[in-house]
Specification:
This protein has 356 residues and is of the alpha/beta class. It has ten helices and 14 strands. Strand 1, helix 1 and strand 2 form a beta-alpha-beta unit. The longest helix is centred in the middle third of the chain and has 17 residues. It is an enzyme of class 1 (oxidoreductase).
Length: 356
């Protein structure tokens, strides 16, 4: 008798994260039966390649979930909010990459390296994957927490423009083309004046020029001066680690990098810390690469980390003022572990639940 393997739908297959997901499905051990590619009606009929075979993209409708066991949702919040419950009502296990369900008490928020067990309890039939910034951070911090007991996190993020979608990448490339070869960046406001309307175009997700600049605002207004991205890091870290009272604060900044988020992390622990022990933990933690010899020029940077799966950690040092604090710098590709890879890992754990 042939082995039964669960069927899979990839919703949002034609998007940037969808493209990464198709590559991951083609690279990982093949645990799936049929793989159904789904997107908006305007993308229906396109042909994409997954697992070495060309497949036609289907329009997102209720019927597209008939016969599907697991569905990966790689779509905007509003699309997931509408369609994920429809798929779940048909008995499909939904793994959602959007923010629509991350803080829902009846939806587990899962990082397989940290809390894989949580994916098994899903009252709504939905499992959520955290924000890309949280994911780049949590695998390293979670490993250290297991040894030292985390008590406080202060994070500054340096986020790639792809975190704002294709419009973010387009805005950066267009603005770089306009400033390349100039002497801009030496006088107040000269970059903004040179870019003119391009710096605040309707399709630019940034409120200020991103070329030759950094923009200290990611997400939407969450009130009291905080952005939605900053609140997401706080609440998602608390939920994944099971620490609802964890002191956490973040400042999120866009930088002129296409892909891979970076973070400066100040982590305070219950127990005293030692760099040698932290190195040992990080060097053996799943999903983490320790790259930490700054005197030799060895530390993670976005341009070196992009396209890789792990979170890379360097500049690990104990605070000079508090023996309970570790300072570190880390980088993680926001389209791989920060999005598609984590969803794929959750889905693979769910696939293992199906009878063979």
């Amino acid at each position: 008798m042939s082995e039964h393997r669960p069927s899979l739908a990839v919703v949002g297959a034609t998007g940037a994260i969808g493209g990464v997901m198709l590559r991951i499905l083609s690279q990982h051990a093949d645990v799936w039966g049929e793989v159904r590619l789904v997107a908006s009606p305007r993308s229906a009929g396109r042909k994409l390649t997954v697992r070495g075979e060309e497949s036609e993209v289907l329009a997102l409708t209720e019927d597209v979930f008939d016969g599907v066991d697991v569905a990966l949702f790689l779509v905007p919040d509003e699309v997931s909010a509408h369609w994920a419950p429809i798929a779940a009502a048909k008995g499909v296990v939904v793994i959602d990459d959007s923010a629509a369900f991350r803080l829902d008490d009846d939806v587990p928020l899962v990082v397989p390296e940290i809390n894989a067990h949580a994916a098994r309890l899903r009252p709504r039939g939905i499992v959520a994957s955290p924000n890309c910034t949280t994911l780049s951070l949590i695998v390293a911090v979670g490993a250290l927490h297991a040894e030292f007991g985390l008590r406080e996190l202060i994070v500054s993020s340096y986020q790639a423009v792809s975190g704002a979608g294709r419009d973010g990448v387009a805005a950066l490339r267009e603005q770089l083309a306009l400033v390349a070869g100039t002497e801009l960046g030496t006088q107040p406001g000269d970059v903004r004046r040179a870019l003119g309307d391009d710096a605040a175009a309707a399709d630019s997700p940034f409120a200020a020029p991103i070329a030759l600049n950094v923009v200290p605002w990611a997400g939407t207004d969450a009130g009291d001066g905080w952005s939605s991205e900053e609140i997401a890091i706080r609440e998602e870290c608390r939920k994944v680690l099971g620490m609802p009272d964890l002191k956490t604060t973040a400042t999120c900044v866009y930088v002129p990098v296409v892909a891979t988020h970076s973070m400066s992390v100040h982590a305070r622990f219950e127990n005293e810390v030692a760099v040698a022990k932290a190195h040992e933990i990080l060097a053996t933690a799943p999903g983490v690469v320790l790259f930490d010899s700054p005197a030799s020029g060895d530390f993670p940077t976005p341009s070196d980390v992009v396209g890789t799966d792990p979170t890379w950690v360097g500049r690990v040092r104990r605070s000079m003022d508090d023996p309970h604090v570790l300072e570190m710098f880390l980088c993680g590709d926001n389209l791989r572990k920060g999005a598609a890879l984590n969803v794929a890992q959750i889905a693979e754990s769910v696939a293992a639940e199906f009878p063979r």
